[in-house]
Design a protein that fits this description.
Length: 121
């Protein structure tokens, strides 16, 4: 049989674990739809049709242009550029997730993983 103090410790541990679970799911980074108001380093998503895809001349990075999106989607070589290039084509509808960044005074969305580019029906 547990002593009174042991029961209190067990209850406190359960409460602490539940608090951590709630904090994890309640405060995990949310993805917002990309807009011109999106902040730099904000994690966002956007959906659209691929208008063009182009590998860069230097570095084997990929740049996608989507319909209804006024920024480039940039996929670095180390983040799956070749894999994404091979898996999508012009005209595909996609949902991309990434972080808002600035390159040469222009906003862009930087994809962090090939899993962040999803084909949508």
């Amino acid at each position: 049989m547990m002593q009174k103090e042991e029961k209190i410790v067990v209850v406190l541990l359960v409460v602490a674990v539940l608090s951590l679970i709630i904090a994890y799911f309640g405060f995990s980074p949310q993805k917002n739809v990309y807009s011109s108001d999106s902040k730099i380093d904000e994690r966002v998503y956007a959906e659209g049709t691929i208008l063009s895809k182009q590998m860069t001349g230097k570095g084997d990075n990929l740049i996608l242009k989507l319909s209804n999106l006024n920024v480039n989607v940039f996929i670095p070589k180390n983040n799956g550029a070749v894999e994404v290039y091979d898996s999508v084509k012009t005209g595909d509808s996609v949902r991309i997730t990434g972080k808002v960044s600035i390159y040469k005074d222009e906003r862009e969305i930087v994809v962090e993983s090939p899993k962040d580019v999803i084909l949508v029906n």
